Amino acid sequence: MASMLVAAAIFCLAAPSGSGPAATPYSSGRAAAVSGALTRFSVDPAARNPGRQFVAGKVPLGLKRKGLRVLVTGGAGFVGSHLVDRLVARGDSVIVVDNLFTGRKENVMHHFGNPNFEMIRHDVVEPILLEVDQIYHLACPASPVHYKYNPVKTIKTNVVGTLNMLGLAKRIGARFLLTSTSEVYGDPLQHPQVETYWGNVNPIGVRSCYDEGKRTAETLTMDYHRGANLEVRIARIFNTYGPRMCIDDGRVVSNFVAQALRKEPLTVYGDGKQTRSFQYVSDLVEGLMRLMEGDHIGPFNLGNPGEFTMLELAKVVQDTIDPNARIEFRENTQDDPHKRKPDITKAKEQLGWEPKIALRDGLPLMVTDFRKRIFGDQDSATTATEGQ
Amino acid sequence: MASMLVAAAIFCLAAPSGSGPAATPYSSGRAAAVSGALTRFSVDPAARNPGRQFVAGKVPLGLKRKGLRVLVTGGAGFVGSHLVDRLVARGDSVIVVDNLFTGRKENVMHHFGNPNFEMIRHDVVEPILLEVDQIYHLACPASPVHYKYNPVKTIKTNVVGTLNMLGLAKRIGARFLLTSTSEVYGDPLQHPQVETYWGNVNPIGVRSCYDEGKRTAETLTMDYHRGANLEVRIARIFNTYGPRMCIDDGRVVSNFVAQALRKEPLTVYGDGKQTRSFQYVSDLVEGLMRLMEGDHIGPFNLGNPGEFTMLELAKVVQDTIDPNARIEFRENTQDDPHKRKPDITKAKEQLGWEPKIALRDGLPLMVTDFRKRIFGDQDSATTATEGQ
């Protein structure tokens, strides 16, 4: 209890007011590079205010509101919790809805005790009634290990969960942002992928629960926009990494980092020449917020167009953590896309957004967080990047 | 009441026993060509019986069943009602579940009073508990006019409806057949389409509610198969025509036939050179039953590979109904696939199936039915093709 009060007090001192320039939870010296990048990115308050008036929900007459009320589904997850940090920091009232299947309470515990923050343990597959101005809908397991664990539940989350959140948005007049995925492009026949590309997705494969689920979530979002005049936004998120990623979720960055830290060989599937693009999480969060506050529906690719082969990534991990880390080749899984790289022209032009953090700059921040979580330094682990 | 009793009596006289060679509801002189075709197709009872033992549901111990108990969702619709005719004719106990959004009671009324037939007005978006051995899951509006009417409801029907029926199949140990669609191929870049083609579908267009909905239904079906060991079958149905089609559903065959009968000009969209393949409904029903009774999961293309341009189809309609019918060109809709034609090699080889009814033979049977329904000869309309 005492620690919560202290945390709240620290928070109140650290939190900027909603009207000032957007400070970030990264603003301490610990992550100066990232903080600088985020400052360059910060949304101009003058530009943001008209948007705020526009997206206002059904506020009871005569009540003056301070800041926005924002719902973040999946807000205790990797990306969600970083988004929550930014929203809280700018003075919004944030409600997190999370069933904690892959989310972790530790990711948002530093906000406990803040009256502008609330966490509800709830599964979006069931309806929920809340009063907010904006809904960031992130809830869904996002790594193959997790989304294949119960494919039917994954589809329910994507389709029924999105239906519930769209229904809520319609009811309360909130603006709705869907976090979709580069997986809607499947194993793409076009490279890099632009938003108008329809994709190459296997409808009956073992990854389809996620790919097709997200495609249908996009369809639902557009159908609510067309049919109910709902204000919607669609982001297609490419590979993202950073502090608070699940450690053993089978994704390549978290795999390599955890393996190198544990002195295990880095497992490369296939010949290691398949490529991916890696986006640092603060870049993504900035893109999501710009999309929500802007005028454009989407879909928008949000990703870092820098392209790395698996072997190049392994090299960066070796350079960052352990030059002596061994590489072990294993047979590739059948359904692994050969390459994926976002064309971000649209986001650049319409949102004025592009990623700023290079892999060699972002990776060390993630390594610091992983090291603390893996080796049990629990107290400082969750605040590794917050600097509070 | 009296008429129902008479109908029931007539039915009992007309219905063949389940053990004999499969007779069909088309067996009178009125539709001799089709009847002949169906007889050639009929499933050999000896070949069918092992399948029946194999698919048996959880029968209470010591109870001997006669025939199969079969659920047909969407059984009051165009394709569903023809399937029901065949199943009832071979001696099965048939339950139709239909919300009558596009289905019509008239399509199955000739079975009312038969103890082996039951119709439940129910929407598959809500769960239902029944005890059957097989589930043919056809429920979904299938013409663009209908499925675009309420896109969100269309997705719910495809995803939640399929979930409910898969859940039922799992609970009672029934075999499950999903009727998917050639629309999963979208605007195909491969021609003709084979089952291994992943398709070219717009995830955020106005047709996506149907296309993506059906793709996700296929995913769910395979996920239940992989995860719960459910016996599943997937059919991908190409354009089908025949008696009992909805008259004003905007599909080209029903449009042309209704227009020619009403002495209106036949509306051709675009230059009329886009192609489609047209399958007579009895061919499809035969394919669905072979798929259900056989050993192969699918997906299987079920369609007639004969390819017609819209102008060629208009010519056949002119020849059949009114040589003087005018053709009127209109601007094409944005999302109309340019061509579509099934590769049915897989169904030929694994199900021993191929369509038998040529367009010029099938169309007159549909015209007879449409003429009676359009010009109000209600009494004979619904039994036009049953010959009862």
TrEMBL record, chains A, B:
<comment type="pathway">
    <text>Nucleotide-sugar biosynthesis; UDP-alpha-D-xylose biosynthesis; UDP-alpha-D-xylose from UDP-alpha-D-glucuronate: step 1/1.</text>
</comment>
<dbReference type="GO" id="GO:0048040">
    <property type="term" value="F:UDP-glucuronate decarboxylase activity"/>
</dbReference>
<comment type="function">
    <text>Catalyzes the NAD-dependent decarboxylation of UDP-glucuronic acid to UDP-xylose. Necessary for the biosynthesis of the core tetrasaccharide in glycosaminoglycan biosynthesis.</text>
</comment>
<comment type="similarity">
    <text>Belongs to the NAD(P)-dependent epimerase/dehydratase family. UDP-glucuronic acid decarboxylase subfamily.</text>
</comment>
<dbReference type="InterPro" id="IPR016040">
    <property type="entry name" value="NAD(P)-bd_dom"/>
</dbReference>
<dbReference type="GO" id="GO:0042732">
    <property type="term" value="P:D-xylose metabolic process"/>
</dbReference>
<dbReference type="GO" id="GO:0032580">
    <property type="term" value="C:Golgi cisterna membrane"/>
</dbReference>
<keyword id="KW-0333">Golgi apparatus</keyword>
<keyword id="KW-0472">Membrane</keyword>
<feature type="domain" description="NAD(P)-binding">
    <location>
        <begin position="71"/>
        <end position="364"/>
    </location>
</feature>
<keyword id="KW-0520">NAD</keyword>
<dbReference type="InterPro" id="IPR036291">
    <property type="entry name" value="NAD(P)-bd_dom_sf"/>
</dbReference>
<dbReference type="InterPro" id="IPR044516">
    <property type="entry name" value="UXS-like"/>
</dbReference>
<protein>
    <recommendedName>
        <fullName>UDP-glucuronate decarboxylase</fullName>
        <ecNumber>4.1.1.35</ecNumber>
    </recommendedName>
</protein>
<keyword id="KW-0812">Transmembrane</keyword>
<dbReference type="Pfam" id="PF16363">
    <property type="entry name" value="GDP_Man_Dehyd"/>
</dbReference>
<keyword id="KW-0210">Decarboxylase</keyword>
<keyword id="KW-0732">Signal</keyword>
<feature type="signal peptide">
    <location>
        <begin position="1"/>
        <end position="19"/>
    </location>
</feature>
<keyword id="KW-0456">Lyase</keyword>
<keyword id="KW-1133">Transmembrane helix</keyword>
<dbReference type="GO" id="GO:0070403">
    <property type="term" value="F:NAD+ binding"/>
</dbReference>
